[in-house]
């Protein structure tokens, strides 16, 4: 079953884009616009990537629903939501460019929900001061991926490899020069020579048991970049979305959009109390309703009324639900009640939240227009990732770029809902352009046959007769370790134990066995995915141990407060000669004028 | 509860029915059952899936003969005393086990004239004018409508007929209030809309409950008939030289 080097197909492009969600496709379009030849590698069929699952909307300060909105307020909200750990330059570029990226989608055929005067409508969302999310009911991700998909297939110079997985990035003299990939359907191996690579592989959620993420989220890009020598940062910051389904068990973790709360939905405990009023952080008090009356006024559009506490940032809401459950005020299956039935009429709910209606009806035997949903936290998003330069998406490895969830910096310690879809478009575009310009001004560096052979052998090694471990069972063990030791709340002793278990599991993953042959073989694919998940999980646990404070998505029971010094540092994970190294790096300092604006009590 | 599941396995033309027994838990969907079988009995069992939430349209198969998304099909909807039979979609060539080669659909899509934006800096559309277009844009490209359509499933007329998914895509573009393209000729000729005989099977299997036949295909048939087969319009065009 070993690969013969002569059997490997070889292809050459200026730019290789790994991942075909919205970030990857937007990068491919941008690179092609610059005149580069592009190879777009998609692990799934085109249009199935995780972007398709985004529900609520894409944040952009268009000012259509509230003309007071502008990029500066969006920037401020992003930094406040990220607990000041964001790369401020990325947050600025993102807030400035998101409106143009959304309008561009409309020119490419996207059909967002409309305002009364026919413009793109915008909805409220957690942490956003004004209604800011361009949306299509609760299927905004589908609209966006389909739009860029239709653009990408009609673009010149882009070859698309569907159901093809990149297994290794090849470097020569500390520069990324290509990759080795395998086609899922027949197991054939392809070597792709590229002068620049854009990593847009998404997140890592499949390392956890309870997650809203699809199977693809196995940390491929994080692991590929780390092994190739690029820095990772902020890996301790994982977003646990406050509202996943909790019942029945087979759908535990499936996402319930924040749009439910944006449309007026409220969270209740088993005593029927709107408990979020008890969890309003000081930094948000001036912009949050004091009582139910004010929150209800806000829903009716009464001027001057502040936002309901259900629309606080996700880290705050997730922890509040956990606390209610822990103190015995949870719902029957260990969550909280999310009620929209008593807030909006049935037709409106079905129009604005059709897939939520459908999802609960089909999978949970529940009519959300009549009864409250039961919801609880679910692993949702990786704020950390590959360190990038704000203006180009360049990583610390020459020739490699990154964008979207795989990249770090924009969201800091906690991402605001709606900032991901706009992130994909803004930084997909930026990184694709920069990668193309780098490639078009660079000579090709070929890679040696010996490297190719070594990499190919590593891909097929798990077919060897000496292997014994069942990869599916290893995966479940990994998920249990991550839930227990690096989940929504963490502490030193438990993290140490988790790291030890991960290292032990890592050895067993080397012994994972692929059964059968190379044609469409999920056991083989999982053996390879497991290697990525283990590397990424270790990076998460090590970074989580190092950050001895609580901030945003990272909560330490043993260090429950902010630490002033750690608030100025990013934790960097770097591959060293003896394994994983941890480095602390100073966060870039924001100019005073922006800092003052962010710190204003209310805008 | 123990359940018997019979899965079609094998590559291309060479297949067999493989019976498994698995433990079914509360709320389980068919895709959960497949995953249990993969983890415990058949690690190389091929199945295509992504989101397991009914949003990506990857896990299409035929459950007891009905084209379905496996992630949205509950085990409890079927009689536990009878085995459940799961086969790949019939209208497409089998790659392996439950995975089919659906690449033809992507080729069809590529040939459809994409959205043509007008020359304006301030595009406006009213909600009531885009409701229908948005209904069509809910499509998750599961290709179950293509699988169930007799023209593709039984007659295999893929070279002459685009199938419901892509007739609907054409309809979406034609009904888009701002689109400047004209696709009627390709809808009639290359995409073969005349081959649809309105049995509405596509509408029945659509997991997004899109009224494919009534809202997309029939209006397009009418537009094609108006354009090409209306004798009064034909005479009018001859006399005035105008196209419409």
UniProtKB/TrEMBL annotation, chain B:
<keyword id="KW-0408">Iron</keyword>
<dbReference type="GO" id="GO:0009055">
    <property type="term" value="F:electron transfer activity"/>
</dbReference>
<dbReference type="InterPro" id="IPR036010">
    <property type="entry name" value="2Fe-2S_ferredoxin-like_sf"/>
</dbReference>
<dbReference type="GO" id="GO:0005886">
    <property type="term" value="C:plasma membrane"/>
</dbReference>
<comment type="pathway">
    <text>Carbohydrate metabolism; tricarboxylic acid cycle.</text>
</comment>
<keyword id="KW-0479">Metal-binding</keyword>
<dbReference type="InterPro" id="IPR012675">
    <property type="entry name" value="Beta-grasp_dom_sf"/>
</dbReference>
<dbReference type="GO" id="GO:0051537">
    <property type="term" value="F:2 iron, 2 sulfur cluster binding"/>
</dbReference>
<dbReference type="GO" id="GO:0051539">
    <property type="term" value="F:4 iron, 4 sulfur cluster binding"/>
</dbReference>
<keyword id="KW-0004">4Fe-4S</keyword>
<dbReference type="InterPro" id="IPR004489">
    <property type="entry name" value="Succ_DH/fum_Rdtase_Fe-S"/>
</dbReference>
<dbReference type="InterPro" id="IPR001041">
    <property type="entry name" value="2Fe-2S_ferredoxin-type"/>
</dbReference>
<comment type="similarity">
    <text>Belongs to the succinate dehydrogenase/fumarate reductase iron-sulfur protein family.</text>
</comment>
<dbReference type="GO" id="GO:0046872">
    <property type="term" value="F:metal ion binding"/>
</dbReference>
<dbReference type="Pfam" id="PF13085">
    <property type="entry name" value="Fer2_3"/>
</dbReference>
<keyword id="KW-0001">2Fe-2S</keyword>
<keyword id="KW-0560">Oxidoreductase</keyword>
<feature type="domain" description="2Fe-2S ferredoxin-type">
    <location>
        <begin position="3"/>
        <end position="92"/>
    </location>
</feature>
<dbReference type="GO" id="GO:0022904">
    <property type="term" value="P:respiratory electron transport chain"/>
</dbReference>
<dbReference type="Pfam" id="PF13183">
    <property type="entry name" value="Fer4_8"/>
</dbReference>
<dbReference type="InterPro" id="IPR025192">
    <property type="entry name" value="Succ_DH/fum_Rdtase_N"/>
</dbReference>
<dbReference type="InterPro" id="IPR050573">
    <property type="entry name" value="SDH/FRD_Iron-Sulfur"/>
</dbReference>
<dbReference type="InterPro" id="IPR006058">
    <property type="entry name" value="2Fe2S_fd_BS"/>
</dbReference>
<protein>
    <submittedName>
        <fullName>Succinate dehydrogenase/fumarate reductase iron-sulfur subunit</fullName>
    </submittedName>
</protein>
<dbReference type="GO" id="GO:0006099">
    <property type="term" value="P:tricarboxylic acid cycle"/>
</dbReference>
<dbReference type="GO" id="GO:0016491">
    <property type="term" value="F:oxidoreductase activity"/>
</dbReference>
<dbReference type="InterPro" id="IPR017896">
    <property type="entry name" value="4Fe4S_Fe-S-bd"/>
</dbReference>
<dbReference type="InterPro" id="IPR009051">
    <property type="entry name" value="Helical_ferredxn"/>
</dbReference>
<keyword id="KW-0411">Iron-sulfur</keyword>
């Amino acid at each position: 079953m070993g690969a013969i080097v002569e059997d490997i197909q070889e292809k050459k492009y200026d730019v290789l884009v790994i991942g075909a969600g919205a970030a990857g496709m937007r990068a491919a379009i941008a690179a092609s616009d610059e005149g580069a030849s592009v190879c777009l590698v998609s692990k799934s069929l085109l249009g199935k990537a995780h972007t398709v699952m985004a529900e609520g909307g894409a944040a952009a300060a268009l000012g259509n629903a509230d003309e007071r909105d502008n990029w500066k307020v969006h920037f401020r909200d992003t930094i406040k939501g990220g607990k000041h750990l964001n790369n401020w330059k990325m947050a600025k570029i993102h807030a400035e460019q998101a409106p143009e990226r959304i309008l561009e989608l409309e020119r490419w055929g996207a059909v967002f929900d409309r305002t009364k005067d026919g413009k793109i409508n915008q909805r409220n969302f957690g942490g956003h001061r004004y209604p800011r999310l361009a949306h299509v009911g609760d299927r905004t991700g589908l609209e966006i991926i389909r739009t860029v998909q239709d653009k990408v297939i009609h673009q010149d110079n882009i070859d698309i490899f569907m159901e093809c997985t990149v297994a290794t990035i090849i470097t020569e003299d500390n520069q990324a020069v290509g990759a080795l990939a395998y086609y899922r359907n027949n197991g054939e191996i392809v070597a792709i020579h590229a002068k620049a690579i854009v990593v847009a592989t998404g997140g890592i959620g499949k390392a956890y048991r309870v997650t809203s993420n699809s199977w693809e989220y196995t940390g491929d890009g994080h692991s590929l970049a780390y092994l190739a020598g690029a820095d990772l940062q902020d890996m301790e910051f994982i977003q646990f979305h406050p509202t996943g389904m909790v019942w029945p068990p087979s759908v535990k973790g499936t996402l319930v959009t924040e749009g439910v709360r944006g449309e007026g939905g409220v969270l209740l405990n088993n005593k029927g109390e709107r408990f979020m009023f008890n969890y309003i952080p000081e930094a948000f008090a001036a912009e949050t309703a004091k009582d139910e009356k004010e929150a209800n006024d806000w829903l009716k559009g009464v001027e001057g009324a502040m936002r309901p506490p259900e629309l606080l940032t996700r880290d705050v809401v997730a922890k509040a639900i956990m606390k209610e459950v822990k103190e015995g005020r949870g719902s029957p299956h260990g969550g909280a009640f999310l009620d929209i039935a008593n807030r909006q009429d049935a037709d409106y709910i079905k129009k604005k939240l059709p897939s939520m209606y459908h999802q609960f009806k089909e999978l949970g035997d529940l009519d959300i227009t009549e009864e409250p949903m039961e919801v609880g936290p679910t692993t949702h998003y990786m704020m950390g990732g590959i360190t990038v330069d704000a203006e180009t998406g360049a990583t610390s490895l020459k020739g490699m770029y990154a964008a979207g969830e795989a990249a770090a910096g924009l969201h800091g310690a906690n991402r605001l809902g709606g900032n991901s879809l706009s992130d994909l478009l803004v930084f997909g575009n930026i990184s694709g352009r920069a990668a193309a310009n780098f490639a078009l001004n660079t000579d090709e560096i070929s890679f040696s046959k010996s490297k190719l052979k070594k990499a190919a052998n590593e891909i097929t090694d798990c077919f060897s007769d000496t292997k014994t471990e069942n990869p599916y069972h290893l995966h479940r063990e990994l998920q249990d370790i991550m839930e227990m030791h690096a989940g929504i709340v963490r502490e030193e002793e438990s993290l140490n134990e988790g790291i030890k278990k991960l290292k032990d599991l890592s050895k067993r993953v080397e012994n994972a066995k692929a059964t059968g042959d190379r044609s469409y073989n999920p056991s083989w694919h999982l053996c390879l995915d497991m290697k990525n998940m283990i590397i990424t999980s270790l990076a998460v646990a090590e970074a989580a141990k190092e950050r001895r404070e609580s901030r945003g998505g990272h909560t330490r029971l043993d260090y429950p407060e902010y630490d002033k010094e750690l608030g100025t540092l990013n934790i960097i994970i770097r591959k060293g000669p003896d394994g994983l190294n941890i480095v602390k790096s100073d966060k870039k300092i924001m100019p005073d004028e922006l800092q003052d604006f962010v710190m204003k009590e209310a805008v | 509860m123990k359940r018997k599941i019979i899965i079609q396995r094998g590559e291309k033309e060479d297949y067999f029915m493989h019976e498994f027994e698995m433990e079914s838990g509360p709320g389980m969907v068919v895709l959960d059952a497949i995953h249990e079988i993969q983890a415990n009995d058949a690690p190389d069992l091929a199945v295509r899936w992504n989101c397991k939430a009914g949003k990506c349209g990857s896990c299409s198969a035929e459950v007891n003969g009905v084209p379905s998304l496996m992630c949205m099909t509950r085990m409890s909807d079927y009689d536990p005393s009878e085995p459940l039979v799961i086969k790949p979609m019939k209208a497409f060539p089998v790659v392996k086990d439950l995975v089919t080669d659906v690449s033809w659909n992507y080729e069809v899509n590529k040939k459809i004239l994409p959205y043509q934006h007008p020359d304006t800096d301030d595009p406006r559309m009213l909600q009531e004018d885009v409701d229908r277009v948005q209904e069509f844009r809910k499509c998750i490209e599961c290709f179950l409508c293509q699988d169930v359509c007799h023209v593709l499933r039984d007659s295999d007329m893929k070279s002459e007929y685009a199938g419901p998914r892509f007739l609907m895509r054409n309809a979406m573009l034609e009904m888009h209030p701002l689109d400047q393209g004209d696709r009627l000729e390709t809808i009639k000729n290359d995409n073969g809309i005349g081959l649809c005989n309105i049995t509405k099977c596509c509408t029945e299997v659509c997991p997004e409950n899109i009224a494919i036949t009534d809202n997309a295909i029939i209006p397009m048939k009418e537009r094609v008939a108006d354009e090409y087969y209306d004798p009064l319009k034909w005479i009018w065009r001859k006399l005035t030289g105008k196209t419409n």
